[in-house]
Amino acid sequence: MNLPNLDSIETPAALVDEDRLESNLHKAAAYMRERGLRWRPHTKTHKVPELAARQLRAGAAGITVATPREAEVMGTVAEDVLLAYSPVGDSKLARLMALPRKVRLSVGLDSREALAGLAGAARGAGRTVGVLVELDMGMRRVGVQTPEETVALAREAAGAQGLEYRGVMFYPGHIRMPMAEQGPALAEVSRRLAPFLEALEAAGLKPEVVSGGSTPTLWRSHEVVGMNEVRPGITPFFDRASAWMGVCGWEEVAYSVLATVVSTAVPGQAVIDAGSKALAKEELPVGGYGALLERPEVVVHALSEEHGLLDLSRTAWRPRVGERVRVVPNHVCVSVNLQEELWAVRAGQVVGRWDVTGRGRGPA
Predict the structure, then answer these.
(1) For the packed helices 18-35 and 49-58, what is the interaxial angle rounded to 10 degrees?
(2) What pLDDT was estimated at residue 172?
(3) Which of 15, 63, 294, 331 has its CA 20 to 30 A from that of 149?
(4) DSSP label at residue 6
(5) Residue 98 Ramachandran class (φ > 0 left, ψ -120 to 50 alpha, else beta)
(6) Spatial contact of 42 and 52, defined as CB atoms under 8 Å apart
């Protein structure tokens, strides 16, 4: 493959620092090994099968996906796939059942309706699909509410032809404060989780898998009592939110959006050609929508679709029109989803290119 010079890539463009990426993968894998946890990274962040394959080579036990499209794409490189989203609807179920036979598929769900649909599809396809009963551990988005409901759904999964009850899952997405302040919230997750696990064991349905975790709580995953599998997504790349929460250092952020300064006409600011359609419009308590990788004091303080406005009030740097900068977005997952390709770079040189094949909804 003939790779372009970095200066010739049209902006905005998504860049991934290869050295930081590799370091992040091995750091996560080492933590999981040392703590006796299974690592099942969520590929919704990068949506690239080549990167999923690298996570598996680094030590991941399987991968997590959120959509049938992601399952189709990742099923080309992974043999153990968890769909952490209830598949409701015949078309989605048909696509899941068409995954390669070598794929050991599990699905998270929280209703009898989703369970019945999955069981019917699995029977019709002549394959066995694992079930993780999803619990609500405080996020209040999805998940079974009581131990009694959990036991009933797990028992139904265990007795359904075409299904195999494998355990439970949850997502502590409500824990998004700085890592040093997470102790009480993580203790509350352990407290809430305990009666669910006790009820399942008492019913003869002790879960093989207790899957949870997130990137914000990554390095404190071992504090959640009973959890044995962790599903972080942002870990390979990190982002501004990760750095703000103390999950990574700024020097560990591997993802940025290359942008060009297109205007300096308004005093006190510079405008770049990366707006909400490249960075996504998610805010942080510290303000702004991103910051410059090499000048983190320079914040993207406003966004329109194709314009990003840099606040120059805290820097002596005065950019020229045509100058290029790298922006670290607040939330990397939604920024990647806006890209058609990612460029791998090392020491200022382009060393690779990946199509973001997991984005979109249609069949892969």
Answers:
(1) 40
(2) 98
(3) 63
(4) G
(5) alpha
(6) no
Task: Record the tokens describing residue 182, joined without a space.
Answer: 């997470």
Distance CA 157, CA 115 (A): 7
Which residue type sits at 149?
E
**pTM beyond cutoff 0.90:** yes
CA end-to-end distance (rounded Å), the chain: 23
The one-letter code for the residue type at 300 is V
pLDDT computed for residue 113 by the predictor: 98
138 to each of 174, 186, 225, how far by Cα in Å? Answer: 7, 10, 15
Percent of the chain clearing pLDDT 90 (strictly above):
99
Angle between helices 90-97 and 112-125 (to 10 degrees): 40
Distance of alpha carbon 272 from alpha carbon 264, whole angstroms: 9
1 pLDDT higher than 80: no
Residue-wise pLDDT for 300-321, tens only, equals 999 999 999 999 999 999 999 9
pLDDT value for 76: 98
